[in-house]
Amino acid sequence: MPRTTRIAVAFLLLLPAAACTPNTTPAPAVTAVTSAPPVDTGKPIFDEAAVTALLTQLATDNNKANSTLNASAVGLYEVEAALAMDQASLNTTPADFAIKPFTYNAFGSQIPGELSGADFFVVESRTSFGGAIYPLVMVKSGSDWRLGHYVGLNAALPEIRRDASGNAEIVGDTDSGGTLLASPRDVAAAHARQITDKPSPDPLFGGDTTTTEIVNSDALLTEMTFVNGSTVVPAESVTYTSTVSTFPIRALRTADGGAAVAYSTITDVVGTNAGRKVFIPQRRRTLGTNTGGGTQTMKRLSVWWALIPVKDSGLPVAVLGGSSTIIEVG
């Protein structure tokens, strides 16, 4: 397992000891939105009694891939953002690095009903290492369920609204329903616009500090290196912009009418050091090469959980946690 850093954290292949720290300023009380009860969505899309067995198999497959540093094997149990991040992580893990095996300990599940049309459910868990809570987004892939998204959080997700059958209520990515501050996709797009070296204030996110703990200029400068004689030096300057990734955005309705949202962003970084030759560490050369000088590029995939409040609550969107991994260099 590669080491945990502030900007390349929380991938389950590496199982960090702690997640990023969300904002800790006490929030004003939220008044729940009064609405009709959720439509009964029938039989759950996954049997809750089988969750433990699913996570046991997931950990077994994960540990097997880790033990041999077999990045191609990750595709047997992961999809989407989780797959992209963890394959990149294994591909950059030193051959002599031993990854410790782990197990999952599930303590809650949010499973939608079949009539909802959902292709995912969420299992909240800790690993045998303790520490952070991981809401695991399990995604339907053919006849299997695979891990599609995860972020280590300091607290469990808010209470999720359920229908008469006990199924979790989902929120469409473009749906504000007239009750949310903004739709999940609009929030993801607004958040991506904040992940830049020159962000403009956005009242949607209030005093968010979590984002800059995950992606920030100071850390990116040291990630992009050049050669000055026989000395490796950081970039002199860095610029970066972000967009919402092509992976699906998924959301659950909270008991108070808000939404807990899982999404991912892509950050394109350009680092410069005039007159210096680009230096890409050996372990990253599986992600790309650059033998030129003066400028290099990097692409980071970041995964997030955010909480969208109800409209007129007076609350901003809260970024609950995130992690970021280098997936391409050049």
Automatic annotation (TrEMBL):
> What keywords appear on the UniProt entry?
Signal
- The answer on whether this UniProt entry bears the keyword Signal reads yes
| InterPro entries attached to this UniProt entry | DUF8094 (IPR058407)
Report the source organism.
Actinoplanes derwentensis
- What protein is this chain from? DUF8094 domain-containing protein
Annotated signal sequence range: 1-21
Domain DUF8094: from-to ranges: 44-323
